[in-house]
Amino acid sequence: MLIMLLASFFYDAGAQYTAKEGSVWAFGFHVGIDFSSGRPEAIYTASHAREGGASVADWQGNLLFYTDGARLWDSTHNLMGNLSLYIPGPAPYVTGLSMTTITTFQAATIVPDPADFNKYYVFSLEATSRDGTMLEAPWLFGVGNPQRPPYLYYSVVDMRLNGGLGGIVPGYNSIPLDSFLTEKMTVVPGDDCNAWLLVRGQNTNEYRAYEITGGGIRPPVISAVGLFAGQSVYGKGALKTSPDRRRVAAVCTYVDGLELYDFDPATGILSNPVIINDTNNNEGLDYRSVSFSPNSSKIYLAGTSKFGKPEDGLYQFDLSLSGASAIRASKTRVWKTTHNWTSTSNTHSDTDLKIGPDGKIYYVGEGPYHISFRLFMHVINQPDQPGTACDVINNGVALYPYPESGKWKGLPNEIAMPVPDTFYARRDVVICFRDSAYIEADTGGRQFIWDDGSMQANRMVHEDGRYTVGYFHGITRCVYHVDTFVVSFSKRIPQVLTNGYSCPGAGQGIARVRTQRYDTVTYTYTWTDSAGNILHTYTGNGEDTVRGLNPGTYGIRITTPKGCDTVLYTTIESLPVPQAGFTSDTLMCPGDTVFFENTSGEYPIWQWHFGDGATASGWHAAHVYPDEGLYPAQLTVENIERCKDTFTRLIEVRGLKLELTAVREIVDRGTSVTLYTNAGEAYSVLAWLPEVRFPDPSSVSQVVYADSTDTYFAVAISDHGCIDTAAVTIAVHPELFFPTAFTPNGDGKNDFFRPAKWGGNIRVRSLVVFDRWGKSVWTANGNHAITGWDGNQNGMPAQAGVYFYIAETETDTGKVIFSKGEVTLLR
After folding, report:
1. DSSP string across 682-712
2. What is the separation, in whole angstroms, between the first and last Cα of the chain?
3. With 0-12 CB in 10 A as exposed, 13-18 as middle and 19+ as buried, what is 378?
4. Potential cystine with 819: which of 276, 495, 600, 807 (Cβ 3.0-4.6 Å)?
5. Which helix (H) or strand (E) holds 327?
C-alpha cells in the first residue's frame, strides 16, 4: 500500500516550546512538589534550602537535579557536588545537619545550555560570613563587619556524567562571575534562543543582564533604573519576570515597595521604572515576594505580618490598566490569615509566590519560622481573574511531613528554557485501503511529544483527524518543529475476480474488479500486463471487466481522487498444453522424399504444414521438396481443452554445387594444365571425362596436356548423397606457319609467299619482306597480307635468292604475335 504525504510549511520564529522541565520543585528542608502527573504531589528531597534554590527536570518531567545554591543533588537525592568556595559548617538551627549557610532570597537558578541538550548552567548567589555562620543582613556590608555581600558564581552540569545521573564538568565549578550584589536574581528567556540572567548591583542603581547563549556567557548589559532613594532598599526581596517576558517586578522590602519595569527580551534592557507600592500603604506587612499571573495581566504581592500584627496578606494589582496611578488604585487584598501568636516584637517571616506548571500560583507565608512548621502551601486557583475571583485556597497543598519542613522561606527560582525558532509543517496524509497506519515525524529529531502525550517518533492512527507532534531538530535547543498530520483514511479496497484459466495464446481469460458494498468512491482502474503495457483504463464506481487475457499475471492500479494509489494483482492460469513433436531428416536433395514421424501424444487433431504451401493431416506424413530452399516444417496438435501446441523443424533442401576450374583456360599448344574441383562442402569425386585423359577417376584435381581446345568434366557426390557435374574448357592458342621457299612460276603450286594458319582463328595485321640488304621489297596489311607476295618487285620479277620477313598477327583470344624468318625465292 502507498501512503502519500503532501506537505506545505509555515514558519513562526516567535512560537515557544513548552515541556516539563519546571514540573518538579525541590525546596526547603527535604520537601518538594511533583507536577508531572498534572496535579501537585508531595515528594521527599534532600534539599537544605533555608531560602531560595532551584530544580530542573527533563522534558518528560523526570527530576534531573536541584540545588540550594551551595550544594547539588542528583535525581536519587545523593550529593552531586558543592557549589560554594566556603567549607560547609554547622548550622545551629538545623539539628544534626551540616550545610553552607546560603541566606540569599534567590540563591540559585538554572539555565539549560542552548547549544547542548545535556548541559546546564547553575548560578549561585552566595551570602555567607567569613567564618561560615548565617548572616541576616548581608546587604549591610561595611568596614569591620565580618560579613560579605552576595557573590555570583556559575557551574556547568553535564547529564552524561556519572552514568546519566549528571556531574559538574571538571574546571567549571564555582567560577566567579560578579560581586557586590543584592539578593535579587532571576532569569528570563530571550528572543534568539538565549536567556538573560538578571541581578541587582548593591552599591549602584543598576541591573545587570548577563546573556547566556550557545557560545557561553556574555558580559552584562547595564540598565540604570530604580526610583527608590538609597540602594540598600533593593537589598532584600524577590525579582520576578512576567510570563510574556515584557515586565520585571522588584520587591523592596525595607520600604514595603514594589517597583515595575519594562523589559526587552531582545536586548536585556530594563526601562520605565514605576513604583506601584510603597511605605505610604503601611499595612504593617513585610513584603518579600511577588508573582505575575500566567497571562501577565495581574501581579500579586505577598507579605507577612510585622509589628505584632497576627496576620499575613496577599494583594493583587491589575496591570491591564493604563498608568501607574490606575494600577496602584487597583490594589485589592485577596487573602489574609490570622495567627495565634500575639508578640509585639518586630518578628516576621518570609513568604514566596511561584506560578506552577498547571497555571495556578502557589504561595507560602504563614507564621514565623521558629514557631510554626510549614506543612502546607496556599493556592491561587484562578490567578488571571480580578480581585477575590482569583480564588485563594488556604493550605491547599500538603507537603512531605518532614520534622524540619517548616524551617524555610522560599520556593525554587525560575529556570529559563531557551525559546527556539519554531517551524510549523502541515502534512496531508491519505492512508489507503488500511484500517490503521503509522505516521512518523523526522527520525533525526528528539524529545517527541504528540498531542496525546505519547513520546515516540511515530504514532499509530486509526481514524481521520489532525495529529500534532513537536520535537527538537538537531543537537541544540534552538530549532523546534511542530508537525500537523491531517489524516484521511480510505479503508475499503475494490475486489478482483477472475475465471482463472486460458490456453496459451488463446485469450480465454476474463478478469473483473468491483467496489465493495456501500462504497461510493470513484476509482480509476489501469490494467497492465507483466511487461507493464497498459491494456485498459476505466474510471467510475461500477464493475470493470477485461476479456481476452492469456495466462500470466496482470496488475490493476487503483487510484482515487484523494490520492490513494495501489496495485492489485490477478493471475490467469494456463490450461494443460499438448506437446507437439516429430522427427525427420533435416538435409535433403531436391526431389527426395522426406518422411515425418510424429512423436506427439495421443491428441485428437494433427495438422502438418510443410513450409512450401503443402499441408497434410494424420499421424505421420511424407513430402517431396522439388526445389532447393529452407522449409519450416510444422506440426500443430490440439487437445480436448482446445489448447494447441506447434513444433517446427527446418528442412534444408540442398543440392551439390560442384565447380571445376583450371589454372589457365587459354594456353599454348602442349602446355600442362591443372584442373581443380570445389564444392564448398564435403564431397567425393566419382569420375573424370573423357576417361582416357584421366588415369585417377577419384582425384579432386587432375593434370592435362593441351594439344587442342577441349572440354573436360568432373562428377562428384556430397556427403548427403547429392550428385553434380562440372565442366571446364581449355582453349589452345592457334599457330601461324610460313613456308621457307616458294616458286612464283605460275604453275599453281607455291606461287605466293604467305602465312598458313593452324587451329583457331587468326588475323594477319601486316607482312613485310626485306632483301639481304634490309631494303623492303614488299609490304601488305590485312587480307592483302594473307594473299601473299607474288615474287615481284616494283612490277618486275625479283631476283632469286634469300629474303627476310616480319609478320604481325593476332589470335582470336587477342594475343599479338610477331613472327620473323627467311624465305628463299626460287625461279
Report:
1. -EEEEEEESGGG-S-TT-SEEEEEESS-EEE
2. 128
3. buried
4. 807
5. helix 324-329
Residues 486-501 have pLDDT tens digits of 998 888 889 898 878 8
**Chain centre distance of CA 352:** 54
Contact 239, 198 (CB under 8 A): yes
Q: What is the DSSP letter of 789?
A: B
List, as one string, the DSSP characters of 595-662: EEEE-S-S-SEEEEE-SSS-EE-SSSEEEE--S-EEEEEEEEEE-TT--EEEEEEEEEE-----EEEE
Query: What is the spatial distance between Cα 291 and Cα 383, in angstroms, rounded to a whole number?
Result: 10
Residue spans of alpha helices (H) in 215-323: none
Q: Which of 2-6, 42-46, 806-810 has the lowest mean pLDDT?
A: 2-6
Side-chain-side CA neighbours of 410 within 13 Å: the count stands at: 35
Q: What is the CA radius of gyration of the chain?
A: 62
Band of pLDDT at residue 89, cut at 50, 70 and 90 = very low
SS3 assignment, position 253? helix
From the CB of residue 55, how many other CB atoms can be counted at a distance below 10 Å? Answer: 28
At residue 497, the 3 state secondary structure works out as strand
- pLDDT bracket for residue 519 (50, 70, 90): confident
Q: Tell me whether the omega of the peptide bond preceding residue 690 falls within 30 degrees of 0, making it cis.
A: yes
What's residue 486's pLDDT? 94
| Residues 6+ away with beta carbon under 8 Å from 111 | 120, 121, 123, 187, 195, 197, 212, 415, 416
* Partner residues linked to 764 by β-bridges: 809
The CA distance from 451 to 819, in Å, is 126
Side chain identity at residue 750, one-letter code: N
pTM: 0.61
What is the C-alpha to C-alpha distance for residues 182 and 666, in angstroms, rounded to an integer? Answer: 136
* CA dist 705 → 176, 521, 668, 690, 726 (Å): 130, 101, 10, 13, 19
For 579, other C-beta atoms within 10 Å of its C-beta total 13
Instruction: Quote the DSSP letter at residue 76.
Output: T
Q: Kindly report the number of other CB atoms within 10 A of residue 348's CB atom.
A: 21
Is there a contact between 234 and 250 (Cβ–Cβ < 8 Å)? yes
- What is the residue whose three cell numbers read 496524509? 429
Cβ-count burial 624-656 (b if 16+ within 10 Å, e if not): ebeeeeebebbbbbbbeeebbbebebebebbbb
What's the CA gap between 135 and 495, in Å, rounded? 85
367: left (phi over 0), alpha (psi -120 to 50) or beta: left
Burial class (CB in 10 A: 0-12, 13-18, 19+), 43: middle
Q: What is the 3-state secondary structure (H, E, C) of 184-220?
A: EEEEEECCCCCEEEEEEECCCCCEEEEEEECCEECCC
| Mode of pairing for the β-strands spanning 207-213 and 221-223 | antiparallel
Per-residue pLDDT reduced to its tens digit, 774-795: 899 999 998 888 889 999 998 8
Burial class (CB in 10 A: 0-12, 13-18, 19+), 59: buried
CB 290 within 8 A of CB 309: no
Name the amino acid, one letter, at 20: K
Residue type, 511: A
Cell numbers at 333, concatenated: 487584598
DSSP 699-751: -SEEEEEESS-EEEEEEEEETTS-EEEEEEEEEE--EEE--SEE--SSSSSS-
pLDDT of 406: 54
Distance (Å, whole) CA 785 – CA 114 = 129
In DSSP terms, 645 is beta-bridged to 637
Handedness of CA 659, 665, 669, 673 (dihedral sign): negative
Tally the residues of the chain.
Answer: 827
